[in-house]
Design goal:
The complex is a heterodimer.
Chain A (H helix, E strand, L loop, with lengths): L14 H4 L2 H17 L3 H17 L4 H8 L3 H14 L5 E10 H17 L6 H18 L4 E10 H27 L2 H12 L9 H30 L10 H32 L18 H22 L7
Antiparallel strand pairs in A: 1-2
Chain B lengths: L2 E11 L5 E12 L4 E5 L6 H8 L7 E6 L2 E3 L8 H6 E4 L12 H11 L4 H15 L3 H4 L8 H13 L5 E5 L7 H17 L3 E5 L3 H7 L2 E6 L2 E6 L1 H5 L13 H13 L9 H13 L1
Parallel strand pairs in B: 3-8, 3-9, 6-7, 7-8
Antiparallel strand pairs in B: 1-2, 1-4, 4-5, 9-10
Classes of the chains: A mainly alpha, B alpha/beta.
């Protein structure tokens, strides 16, 4: 239970940590919009290089980011093949006769079995997965025996750049959003959000209450997890065992966890409400902050750069300016 | 047989995968029919120690033997049988209640260990009677009874599984004096009349000295004392354990220092009174 990290905040001290959370939130939105406005491979790769530079200078551990990309690996692989196969514009770069035959289908089945069989023993699962996918195509090229049908595998320039375009776009989105969560504490994010949404107070939208709810939710995740751990152990000593029981029993066993957790959380919520009221919290009342967010030079630079990128991308998109390809 | 710890250590893993040693190199044997109390200040590893007795934790080093089972277990071995032999009652066990009625909640444990509804109900009723729950309460919701009653229900839920060893983690915590007295009387009865081995964690020296036949003192992951109560409270390094003495014992020390009354270890008001009477008549 001790090794659960809430949020993904990594303590650090680079320039990106010093930016005001409000600016970081706005910058995230602006840069995301910019990324989706770009419409050519060249511009996207320029943006990609820019993001990589930003990431490297932020001193966030490289492996952490890679780990953040891992869940997307299947999506990325899938996009890659769809694009490669479907887009057929530009110069033909590579051509290979592929065979769907009894021998190659058999080999693919073998690869799938091998993949799941050996999965447990390897440490580099993503690399391993990619290797196996590649192998599945290689056998199609190499084993024409017992043919069923055949097709030509062609890679066009357009396909390749289109693929790169989409891959870069996905990776940029991931880098941007993880940079925010890696370098900003959850409480700072909620405070920033509260401050940004302040104008909505005019239309009586309960901004500070929403922010309070958010930060309380974040605050109580570890507490509830700890509580859950205790209850799980208590029920385990009454014979609940998720690994050793049948499916039918599992249903009632899940209930034996859920109900106590509900009871505990309601109890906690009630206690918390009383404690807050005892300390003078009034819903809708005016509150002051212990940490005031200050707008500094670095924030100004950051927001100017972001708006610069945004306006550049708008101008490029609308064709007011054009770069020679 | 009972429970045997051989060179057992357990380390928790922290956020950055660093190790926190909760218990270190524990050697311990608990025989059948003992009433053992484990004391020590917060964070000394008591709870970690007793969770091994129930196979909730597996030692990171060393070996625990519980009857015929060994921990760490082999890959596909089940821990169910261990949990049936050793019943663990957690701190604030009332949080584990969840069923619609008290009776159903007590039946939950036995049913998990493969008893039919009818068999489980028989066991549940027996256990309920043992802890002093009336027939009327059995049909109520476990969330609509008093705190003391809830704790009895939770304890009955463990007793219904008929464990040979009962491990109790601060069973009297948060109860009023009357409630804790009744609960302790219940454990005494289980020990004497039902021959259950009892392992009790407590901070209350009055309770520990009155009921336990053997006391273990833990300090930062080590067992620093293992023996009888007379030896503990007379121990030359007693102050190093950061423990208090029972009230009657303290008063005895005070009286013998102030009035030169001959010292004799006493643990309850009654014993103190008897001793004073004896001294007075001499």
């Amino acid at each position: 239970m001790n090794n659960i990290v809430i949020g993904q905040y990594i303590p650090g001290d680079s320039w990106i940590y010093k930016i005001d959370p409000r600016i970081k939130l706005s910058a995230l939105v602006i840069l995301l919009v910019t990324t989706f406005l770009l419409n050519s491979f060249l511009l996207m790769s320029m943006m990609f290089v820019l993001m990589i530079i930003m990431f490297l200078s932020s001193s966030v551990p490289f492996m952490k980011m890679i780990r953040g990309l891992k869940p997307l690996m299947f999506l990325l692989t899938f996009t890659f093949f769809i694009q490669i196969f479907s887009v057929r514009t530009g110069k033909l770069l590579f051509e290979q006769q592929m065979y769907i035959s009894y021998s190659s289908l058999g080999a693919i089945a073998g690869i799938i079995v091998l993949y799941f069989g050996l999965k447990r023993f390897t440490r580099f699962r993503v690399t391993y997965f990619l290797l196996m996918v590649l192998l599945a195509f290689v056998v199609q090229a190499l084993l024409p025996y017992g043919p069923i049908s055949e097709y030509t595998f062609q890679i066009y320039e357009g396909g390749l750049s289109q693929t790169g375009f989409f891959l870069f776009r996905i990776i940029i989105v991931v880098i941007l959003s993880s940079l925010l969560t890696f370098t900003t504490m959850p409480t700072d994010i909620t405070n920033g959000l509260e401050s940004l949404l302040k104008p909505l107070k005019v239309i009586r939208f309960p901004v500070s209450e929403l922010a309070m709810m958010l930060s309380l939710t974040l605050r109580f995740i570890p507490t509830l997890l700890e509580e859950t751990g205790k209850i799980m152990k208590a029920q385990a000593s009454r014979g609940v065992d998720f690994n050793e029981s049948k499916f039918k029993d599992k249903v009632s066993q899940v209930i034996s966890l859920l109900i106590p957790i509900f009871v505990v959380s309601f109890k906690r919520a009630e206690d918390l409400a009383n404690a807050m009221e005892a300390r003078g919290y009034i819903v809708g009342g005016k509150r002051t902050k212990i940490d005031l967010m200050k707008f500094r030079m670095i924030d100004l630079v950051a927001i100017v750069v972001c708006f610069g990128l945004l306006s550049l991308s708008i101008l490029l998109r609308t064709g007011v300016i054009a770069i020679a390809l | 047989m009972g429970i045997q710890f051989k060179q057992v250590s357990y380390a928790y893993r922290g956020v950055k995968n660093e190790r926190y040693e909760a218990i270190l190199n524990i050697n311990l044997e608990i025989k059948d029919g003992e009433f053992v109390a484990i004391i020590g200040h917060t964070g000394s590893g008591k709870t970690t120690l007793v969770q091994h007795m129930n196979a909730l934790l597996e030692p990171t080093k060393g070996e625990v033997q519980i009857f015929n089972y060994r921990l760490p277990k082999k890959k596909k071995e089940k821990v169910g049988p261990i949990r049936k032999c050793v019943g663990l009652v957690f701190q604030f066990p009332e949080y584990q209640l969840f069923e619609e009625t008290v009776l159903k909640d007590i039946m939950f444990g036995p049913k998990n260990f493969g008893l039919t509804n009818e068999e489980a109900e028989v066991k549940a009723r027996e256990a309920a009677q043992l802890v002093g729950l009336t027939e009327e309460i059995l049909s109520k919701s476990p969330f609509r009874i008093s705190g003391g009653q809830m704790r009895r229900v939770a304890i009955a839920g463990i007793l219904a599984m008929e464990p040979d060893i009962l491990v109790l983690d601060e069973p009297t915590r948060g109860l009023d004096p009357q409630g804790s007295k009744e609960i302790m009387a219940l454990f005494k009865e289980l020990h004497v009349n039902h021959h259950k081995t009892i392992v009790l964690i407590s901070h209350d020296m009055n309770i520990v000295s009155q009921y336990a036949s053997r006391i273990l003192v833990m300090d930062s992951g080590h067992v620093v004392f293992d023996g009888k109560r007379d030896d503990l409270f007379n121990h030359p390094q007693f102050d190093a354990f950061h423990l208090a003495r029972p009230h009657a014992y303290e008063q005895m020390i005070h009286l013998s220092q102030q009035l030169n009354i001959p010292f004799k270890p006493v643990y309850t008001k009654g014993e103190l009174l008897e001793h004073l009477k004896e001294v007075y008549h001499e």
